[in-house]
Amino acid sequence: MSKLDARLKETADRINAALEALLPKPQGPEARLIEAMRYAALDGGKRLRPFFTLEAGRIFDADETCLMRAAMAIECVHTYSLVHDDLPCMDDDDLRRGRPTLHRAFDEATALLAGDALLTFAFEVMAEPATHQDPQMRCKLIVGLARASGALGMVAGQAADMAGGDIGSDLIAVTRMNRLKTGALINFAVDAGALIGCASEAEKTALSRYAHDIGLAFQMVDDLLDAEGVVRDTGKAVGKDKARGKVNFVTVLGADATRDRIRMLAEQARRHLSIFGPRAQVLLDAIDFVVTRRH
Fold first, then answer.
1. Nearest-angstrom CA–CA distance, 113 and 280
2. Which pLDDT does position 243 carry in this prediction?
3. Which of 142, 150, 272, 275 could make a disulfide contact with 209, Cβ separation 3.0–4.6 Å?
């Protein structure tokens, strides 16, 4: 196991343990709903967004408790988005991370409500004094998360994705869709670490540009995996976009040109981190993980 793999595993294990302790326990009339929330939130996954929050904050020696709670809130929003994405009215998927999707394991209504509950729980976590002693900082984090996940962020990207063929072969539109759907929350994950770490404006800008490039590269790799991957590696269905007539980077650019752009984005992301020197080594190593992953 490489140092980065060990760091990613450590982050995932810590986030899993923290979420397990923080999420409500199944009891009373709400037990089934809470079981569904926990099924979705505790099913593993890369925990890449929390990883970015923690590692961005560590550049500035930010308080670890603050970073962890912000990271958990971000992961709850990400999990809710996956639950809703998988619903029959959206992508209608049966498999997520190698397990039945939430609406298959429970039922559609429970999955919808569990997603809603995870979204609102994220803001509860972010708003609590335990996240940061400064209420103004908590407000900044709440506003940032809301903007990244709302109608001008992730949800806007999801809506554009559902529009599918209306985008056609417009690369700018496809880029904007994915910048919102996938990139907005990744961007905020990095921004949150910089914010908690009291980074300078120049440092915030460098990290935000890094997050922009890594977020687009992440989605391009996802599109390649959908076109060329296998279920045993990805843990979810492949070939979905082509079957449903959806557009993505591969359908617009082709696989080879998509790989070229991934390499370009990776190089740009490395340059953005140069101002931090060895302090950003983990984020630098994460670039290779993102662009070479198979799941």
1. 39
2. 63
3. 272
